[in-house]
Amino acid sequence: MSLLAPLSLSPSPVTDDLTPATRLETAGCAHGYRVTQISTTDVRGGAALAAHRLHRALGGAGVRSRMLVAQRFGTVPDADIVEYNPFTPAPSALGRAFFRFGRRWHRPPISRAGAYFSPEWTLTGWRLVSQLPECDVVNMHWVADLLDYRTLPRLAARVPVVWTFHDMNPFTGGCHYSGACARFCESCGSCPQLATSSGERDMTHRILKRKLGILKRVPRHRLAVVCPSAWLAREARSSVLFRDFEVRVIPNGLDLQQYQPADPAEARARLGLPAKARIVLFVADQIEDRRKGLAQLLEAFGGVRDVPNLLLVTLGQGRSPVLADLPCRHLGALHDPALLAAAYSAADVFAIPSLQDNLPNTILESMACGTPVVGFATGGVGEAIADGQTGLLAPVGDAPALGTALRRLLEDDRLRRQMAGEARARVEKEYTVRLQALRYAALYHELLQERAGAVAA
Known about the structure:
Rossmann fold; single chain; six-stranded parallel β-sheet; 15% strand
């Protein structure tokens, strides 16, 4: 009998009682397990942050976790975070420099601003298996530019592998989000994003074919796929690459001590924001990424221009947006969790107009800080937001409907306060990092039990 009950794939909240995971923790079954989290970076980017939070929380579930990363940005000392160097025993500075060169050199030109495209091979990933710390399980996360797919069969032969998908790249011909394109279900080709596409058998077709050939050499019982959202799990199951693998849903989690409601006046004073403004907050790693929907948000503001003291606050890398007659403050990229939490608490509404997305950390962070969310009903966004309870949803791409939702929350103080309480309660119930760690610990235990049974047989 499986120790980890499958999670619901409906867009409704995850409501399993976690009895298997709780029983696992109580019995101490996971104690002594060693897992290595593989991620391109340790804390830079939403996927890396999610992996790092899991890494830190697994100790409470009886699992010893280490991270193997290509680039380390965190400033807090952590002996359990190891930086990958393909040129060991040469100095690590050489490995870092070559990695930065490699990730720029092997990316083909794409036609969408701010988007990503990653092939299945890398210049530096060929020694990943040999540098793997001693462990019982490997948990891969966002590994673009680090993982060379040709090493997957050797990696899975050494230890069971859990692969947490943070976007669509593992099962496409290179794009990280496919938009309206569903060619990854069969063969890719004629890529609408690749500027150098040469037709039906372009680079994306060849990449997908090579991925398929590699994955056929990975035994199904040695690789388990995890998706933070039910939407991404459905997409993975429909792909030609992973339709025969087991795909589970484990949402990301938060440390609710880091992200909690704070006094809005104090938060605004800390960030230098006006005390009486009606603040709409927009956050993205790259604010110019078209998929994140800033253009749709600016269009939506056409319907709320008459709201008194309206102010758009943006966070992320990129230039400040320009909109006539609309005050805007761009705070740049904030990596300090305390400052991020202050930004959420300072806002009246958090807007996430993504056109396609997995389960963004920003939604959970905003809800944990008691700030209701307005966004498009796409992917994991539509799963995390309980429409009418913790925020408001609009049809994907419908800027006027998004503007109507913004107006409703900006003008109704009572509704906003009610949603703030509901948002915090939802995160406390369903999206804590402890809950996430228990679910992963149960999965690791299950994979290791299956391996032990296969060896005994």
